[in-house]
Amino acid sequence: MALEQLKTMTVVVADTGDFETMIKYKPTDATTNPSLLLAAAILPQYQHLVEKAVDYGKKQDGDNAAKLAATMDKLFVLFGVEILKIVPGRVSTEVDARLSFDKEGSVKKALKLIELYAEEGIDKERVLIKLASTWEGIQAAKELEEKHDVHCNLTLLFSFCQAVACAEAGVTLISPFVGRILDWYVSNTSTKYYAPEDDPGVKSVTQIYNYYKKFDYKTVVMGASFRNTGEVIALAGCDLLTISPKLLEELDASTITVTRNLDAEQAKSCDLERLSLDEKTFRWMLNEDQMATDKLSDGIRKFAVDAVKLETFINEKLNA
Fold first, then answer.
1. Cα 236 to the chain's mean position, in Å?
2. pLDDT tens for each residue of 88-115
3. pTM score, whole prediction
C-alpha cells in the first residue's frame, strides 16, 4: 500500500477534525483549522464537546463577547485533547485568522490556548500553535518560540520569502500549501494540467525543503493542501505531509511504488543562495509574488469567514 510506504520516509499527518478518520489511518499528528472544526462541530457525534465548551463559557466572567471567546478557545482545545487520545504525536491548533496582523494579540491568544491545554493535562510539547505566515504572524511565532518555548506551525505559506522568514525566526514547522498554489496557476494561466513533478506547488515545497536542509535550519516542512495523490507522492521524503481523509483513503488503496523524491543529503549539493530578510524586504518580495499575495489574503479571509460561522453557531448555544 502506498500509504504504508510513504510512512517509512515521511511523517503522515491527518488534515481533519474527524476522529474516526484518525483511528482508521493511524497518522502521527493531526492538524485542525476553523474550517475543519466548523464541519465537525455541527455533527451529532461531537455535540458533547460543544456542550462542554458552552458550559465552560457560561461560567466565565465578562460580557457575551468574552464568554463567546472563552467558549471558542475551549472548543478548539477540547477537540485537540480528543485528537491527542488518538494520535501519538502533536495536534495543531489555530489562532484566530482575524489576528493575522496583530502580533501581540496572536501571542496572547496562543498562550491562552496553551494554558487551556495545560488545564486538561496536555503538555505544550504535544501542541503546535498555528499562525498565518504574515510578517506579524512570523514575529509572534518567534516570540512564542524564544520566550515561551511554545512550538508553532506557520500556515498559509505560499512563497519562498515566507519560508525564509519562518526559518530565520526559528519556528518549529511550516505548512506550505501545495494545492492552493496549483489552483492559482490553473485559474490564472493558460496551463490547466500539470504532471506532479511540474506542479508549481510541488516545485515550491521542493525548493523550500532543499533550502532548509542545505543551510541546516531546524524548521521542518509539512506540505499541506493537496489536490491529488500525485502531489503527495511527488513530495515523498518531505519531513511531514498533512493529508485529507479522501486522499488518505486513496493512498491506502493504491498499490503504486513510492520512491523518495526529497532527500536531506542530496539537498546539500543544491545550487541555492542564502537569503536574509528584514521586514521591508519580506514585504516587497511577497508583494512581487502575485500568487502568494492573492492566496495569503484569500486564505485569511476564508478562515475568518468560517471562524465567524462557528462563532455564530456557538453563540446560539451560549444564549439558548
1. 18
2. 999 999 999 999 999 999 999 999 999 9
3. 0.96
